[in-house]
Amino acid sequence: MIHSLFLINCSGDIFLEKHWKSVVSQSVCDYFFEAQEKAADVENVPPVISTPHHYLISIYRDKLFFVSVIQTEVPPLFVIEFLHRVADTFQDYFGECSEAAIKDNVVIVYELLEEMLDNGFPLATESNILKELIKPPTILRSVVNSITGSSNVGDTLPTGQLSNIPWRRAGVKYTNNEAYFDVVEEIDAIIDKSGSTVFAEIQGVIDACIKLSGMPDLSLSFMNPRLLDDVSFHPCIRFKRWESERVLSFIPPDGNFRLISYRVSSQNLVAIPVYVKHNISFKENSSCGRFDVTIGPKQNMGKTVEGITVTVHMPKVVLNMNLTPTQGSYTFDPVTKVLTWDVGKITPQKLPSLKGLVNLQSGAPKPEENPSLNIQFKIQQLAISGLKVNRLDMYGEKYKPFKGVKYVTKAGKFQVRT
Amino acid sequence: MASNSLAYNEQAGAGETAELGQEAAATMSPSGAFGLFSSDLKKNEDLKQMLESNKDSAKLDAMKRIVGMIAKGRNASELFPAVVKNVASKNIEIKKLVYVYLVRYAEEQQDLALLSISTFQRALKDPNQLIRASALRVLSSIRVPIIVPIMMLAIKDASADLSPYVRKNAAHAIQKLYSLDPEQKEMLIEVIEKLLKDKSTLVAGSVVMAFEEVCPERIDLIHKNYRKLCNLLVDVEEWGQVVIIHMLTRYARTQFVSPWKEDGGAEDSEKNFYESDDEQREGTERRKKPYAMDPDHRLLIRNTKPLLQSRNAAVVMAVAQLYWHISPKSEAGVISKSLVRLLRSNREVQYIVLQNIATMSIQRKGMFEPYLKSFYVRSTDPTMIKTLKLEILTNLANEANVSTLLREFQTYVRSQDKQFAAATIQTVGRCASSISEVSDSCLSGLVCLLSSRDEVVVAESVVVIKKLLQMRPAQHGEIIKHMAKLLDSITVPVARASILWLIGENCERVPKIAPDVLRKMAKSFTSEDDLVKLQILNLGAKLYLTNSKQTKLLTQYILNLGKYDQNYDIRDRTRFIRQLIVPNEKSGALSKYAKKIFLAQKPAPLLESPFKDRDHFQLGTLSHTLNTKAAGYLELSNWPEVAPDPSVRNVEVVELQTKEWTPAGKAKKENPAKKFYSESEEEEDSSDSSSESESESGSGSEEEADSSEDSSASSPSEQEGESASESEGRSKRTAKKSWKTRAKSDSEDEEKENEKSKSSDSSSAESSSAEESSSDAESESESDSGPDSRKVTKEKEGRPKQARSTLPKDVSLLDLDDFNSVSTPVALPTPVLSPSLRADLEGLNLSTTSSVINVSSPVFVPMKTHVLLHRMSGKGLAAHYFFPRQPCIFGAKMVSVQITLNNTTDQKIENIHVGEKKLPAGMQMHAFSPVDSLEPEGSVTVSMGIDFCDSTQTASFQLCTKDDCFSVNIQPPVGELLLPVAMSEKDFKKEQGMLTGMNETSALIVATPQDFTPSVILQKVVNVANVGAVPSGQDHLHRFAARTVHSGSLMLVTVELKEGSTAQLIINTEKTVIGSVLLRELKPVLSQG
Question: DSSP H helical segments within A224-267, as ranges?
């Protein structure tokens, strides 16, 4: 399936290559560079490129391109999903998926790639299995290894690989047994000029951090499971239980993982927690314009909206901006034309606003369209959909775990058109 | 020296071993004088030194640096010899890095790569499954054609390995070998067939992948595994799921009839609430013929549904395409929700998913209509995503939602992303053309856009308006006039050409403007784009024909300009037009029709989705994404008119029944070997299994009755045995001789099998002679050899596995013969290599012989109990005993016996213990610990150990309670004096060879053929005696091995099937007494119908 993999940085250097079958020359990447040049920016490089003898399927992650070489028919999503999994693994191992991190750990990267694919077909992608095969680098371990000469390569087959619960290893032991769940909901919305909602939807995930000894069997139930419209599960969840009882029953992986991600049914009206008053205008035949944006809270259920950031991609003709915020600070990057306003918390008494002048390139026609505002915010202790965890039960182990649930609502792709 | 220091710097960057590098380099600084190119050479030199050092840390550092070089794409091939030496390193990390290196460069350094092969062959036999698997992985990744036979062998071995992980790797190796040498296809298909039967979820995905790569056309291999794959699917790892689902989609399209004709029928439980008009139209076309979905078809659809909830986008997409291609149309709606969910994912996933949705939305609008708003575009989306979303929005547009959409489009048109804005304009055009209600408002909207400041937008609008006007040749004079004015400002060639064409077509509607436009264009003709020039010529020609008075001169001027144009297309067009319209003497008949030619009604262009033609590709494939057939694309066949026989998927229940039975595993595993020789294995299989299920129920009870009968008959035979001890020496000699004949007959048998000839006269004759010599040598002295140290696995779980573990060796043995005979002339071109190869192969054999014969866990534990003390004679205390066939915990020479005590009185029975023992000489007994009290109706199970000294003599003792003593006896059935051992076929033959003559007893059995299926025989034999099955390469030979508990002497049982319904039962053992008793016990059991 996957023939070779090339890692390419933003400046077009191939800094790592790995082949699982016969070696494919680096020159195959020229087709990729060609496509990259054609596309205006990195985001627009087509993920699938056809070349005379190969097909290139690439992803763009953290300023790196992962370009895989394919020779025969394969579901493209298969490759894309796998490449993302590779990037996730790097992230997991090195804390970041960057060129420097990969170069520093090139041997581990190679060992990982060797284990993850065999003959181009995924072999072990479950992080808990990989971590037993190849231990992640830590400072302590590297010191110990250099003294004792022991290696960070495991020599036994990870227990998970063979069991029917490959996500969990055997013999987990903790002195403090804890299970934490984070219910994170994101509001995706498009708000039009007049402030009415064009489209809004809640996407949620439940991330878990489970540190439990032995083989615990957990079941998590909700007060209002009907809210969850479309759910995707971690493989550990027993689908039948969910179908019949709407209870999440599972033997959890060890550590951090995403338990489910869900969408709240579109029938429910989505409460939009903030509103934006905006007035952006460019004067005809003059090289300046006005910019005035105010943010206020709305339907916030008694919780404070915090961590607000407004990002605006200004039109190309904007040279500079001269603004004064009543709260927070702003930056404008004249190269990328991105305005970022870091607001912070909203206090209803004094609404934060950002006002000022926009300097345009003289002589250029005024932009036709006002830029749209991308807004980020966060509300602690609230799941905007109203989803509530009812209880968590544990079977199969004797001890009493410490349990906790946290709710957060965030802005997802939250866009205000102006 | 300058170059030297340069090299150091590089090293310091490459590895963590700057000091080491320096150290090494210091010793060889003189070579620095060689100048420029020496730096590279030198660096490798120091790596070589590090590799040759005896410190693992230095080697490891060197390997790390080399891997760093490989990763960067630098050439490190010249280090090959130094690296390969470390292939057998003890340090697992070094080893792994060497593997990495080896796989990378083996293709370039084939000769040297061969040095490493033997290491892998050794590792293939390693007890650690991880090492076996990685050895197989590396071995199969070395792309050296010369080792193809070795790879083939290794794959075959591994495919029968105990560890599913190793089998999974074997499946991967199949593909590698296939790509290295497609000639091996037939052999590989056999392995694939075997692995397809594997029940491990770990293997399923990989073997289906191999199937898809090697023999996707052999759909017949899937039949029997279809249901299993459907049922396993949920538990297979995610990558395997994708592959399996794609394969099953293809399979379903060949095996089931279309569910589409008759849709929304009675069995339609999950009907969609949003059935579109599209589907209703289909509904009216319904045929009245009743359609019933094949249950297997339903099974696939049902079992894949949960996977829509997978976190893996590829799995969701795979299920979606399965539903799209094979489920009834009314059920396909469930996939849309999941696909829309994927749109939250990263841009690459979005891109692919949107492409597929675009294709789907053309055919079945209804599916995605409820999710219309999910496709609304955000200004931050990449352009490629935006255009795809737009495409989908257009496909979904209908009367009901078009006004909402147009409002949305208004935002898009003003987007800063001009490419996207242009695409939106085209979209508006398409909406206008497909939905007539809005076409007027669309048109006016587009006309408004003509006054936009952005040229791209205006140009695109012009082109779209041109198309729209062409479709609706109504009175649009105003628009045309407006556009004519634009010619002054607009510069985009396509737009200018469009305007000119529009004026030309409608020149009679705008009689005043058209000639003026021509005049303007004549002025600028030379500076126009070619596209525009052609349209100017056309406009001139049309005006000449309709309004020659005003435009004759202008047209001729333009034609003159065109005549000398640089572009030959234009010169060509000019010549053509001149001949056609300007009347002269030479002009032919055509000029009469000039007006018809130029001013004919032109068909309106059809505004279609660019995804229209993609639907003939299977969704979710690379070919679909590229819209061209990718290499290796497997066409999805059309539904068959008539479904092929569904019974091919029926699987007899063999597997279920035989689960607790190791023989099942054995019978199954033997298949490949069988296949090797016979081609009609499938039929055999099915007949086997059916007969098995019939006879199984009866046999158990029969044997119970039988064994008790025989145990009573065994005591007289024992006396015979004790007396005859002098004949030992003689018997040894005859043993040797007869072993030779036996071996001969064995090999002949094999050949027979090969040729599939049914007669085995010669071999049976020879073997019977051997039997004669042995039959009179029934008695022999009991020589007590010390008990061997035994490894005993206690858990019952391990039982079937243990028995199976011996199988691969057997397979390899057979294959060896085969391989030597077949491939010697072909695959071993160099004489240099063949000896080493052979040595390797011999190495394989040797490793099997060296394996110690271990006691394995029992194959089967009959639950039969014997009465020790009847409750009537025991005053209410009843005792039963049974043989758990577990190694005794009280002593290695003891047989463990479990006694169940029951209190049938209404009072407590206290202090139950063993009283006085009356044991024959030599016998020992370990009594159970006393039971303090036994409640009324209570029962307790105690275990004790008895050393029967390998005889069936009765152990008598007293069972005492507080008040009474009862004399009881335990007499062991001979089969319980044994412990099963696992050994290879080769070992068996060797041992058997040493136990002929007097040590051999045999009997002829007559029974119906159903009783001679492998599993039935095994069942019967293990029911009587605690023996272990020995893998057999031949169908007609069934071998079992055990050793006596006390002395550890081997007890080898062979059942050799003969012609007709007879079989020869042979027992070889030093303990001839027990042997003959066992023979007597086995004979009636096996011969019973």
Answer: 239-245
Query: CA dihedral defined by B352, B357, B359, B361, rounded to 10 degrees?
Result: -170
Please determine, for residue B272, whether its predicted confidence score (pLDDT) is greater than 70: no
- Starting at the edge strand that comes first in sequence, how are the strands of the sheet with A389-395 ordered? A247-250, A217-222, A389-395
What ipTM does this complex have? 0.91
In a domain, A293, yes or no: yes
**Do A219 and A108 have their domain in common?**
no
- Name the token pair of B916: 């006085």
Residue A403 shares a structural domain with residue A282:
no
> How many domains does one find in chain A?
3
Cβ neighbours, 10 Å, residue A280: 17
pLDDT score recorded for residue B434: 83
Q: Check CB contact under 8 Å for A77 and B313.
A: yes
Domain limits at A221? 178-270+384-416
pLDDT higher than 80, residue B189: yes
User: Could you give the CA distance from residue B196 to residue A156 in angstroms, rounded to a whole number?
Assistant: 27
Residue of B897, B898, B909 whose CA lies nearest to B871: B909
Tally of CB atoms within 10 A around B814: 19
* Packing angle of the helix pair B313-326, B238-255 (nearest 10 deg): 10
Integer Rg of chain B from CA: 43
Nearest CA-CA distance, residue A350 and chain B, Å: 30
Q: With contacts defined as CB-CB under 8 Å, which chain A residues touch B89?
A: none
The residue written with tokens 């010390």 in the block is: B786
Instruction: Give whole-number Cα distances, B623 to A72, B364, B631, B862, in Å.
Output: 10, 21, 9, 59
Is pLDDT at A348 greater than 80 in this prediction?
no
In this predicted model, which residue has the larger pLDDT, B111 or A247?
A: A247
How many residues can be counted in chain A? Answer: 418
Answer yes or no: is pLDDT of A67 > 90. yes
B7 pLDDT more than 70: no
Question: Would you state the structure tokens that stand for residue B569, as one six-digit string?
Answer: 């297309």
pLDDT value for B836: 44
Q: Among A59, A234, A371, whose Cβ lies nearest the Cβ of B348?
A: A59
H or E element in which residue A220 lies: strand A217-222
B827 with B837: CB under 8 angstroms? Answer: no
DSSP three-state, residue B939: strand
pLDDT digits (tens, 9 = 90+) for B818-839: 333 333 333 334 444 444 444 4
Structure tokens at B1063: 């079989």
Contact criterion met (CB < 8 Å) for A75 and B317: yes
CA distance B923 to B288: 83
Tell me if A412 is assigned to some domain. yes
pLDDT band for B402, please (50, 70, 90 cuts). Answer: confident
Q: Tokens 């059991």 appear where?
A: B1085
Q: What pLDDT was estimated at residue B826?
A: 39
Q: Rounded to 10 degrees, what is the CA torsion of B604, B605, B609, B614?
A: 110
pLDDT score at B785 = 41
- Cβ of A162 within 8 Å of Cβ of B165? The answer is yes
Do the Cβ atoms of B252 and B290 come closer than 8 Å? no
Block residue for tokens 């870091």: A342
A25 and A143 housed in the same domain: yes
Residue B264 has pLDDT above 80, yes or no: no
Q: What pLDDT, on a 0 to 100 scale, did the predictor assign at position B855? A: 64
Amino acid identity of residue A153, one-letter, is: V
Structure tokens given for A103: 């170069």
Residue of B74, B99, B416 for testing the chain A interface, max A β-carbons within 10 Å: B416
- The average pLDDT across A117-126 equals 85
Same domain assignment for residues A47 and A89: yes
| CB contacts, 8 Å: B135 with chain A | none
Exposure of A226 in the CB half-sphere (CA atoms within 13 A): 2
Q: Tell me the three-class secondary structure of B519-547, residue by residue.
A: HHHHHHHHHCCHHHHHHHHHHHHHHHHHC
Please tell me whether residues A27 and A59 are part of one structural domain.
yes
The pLDDT of residue A310 is 92
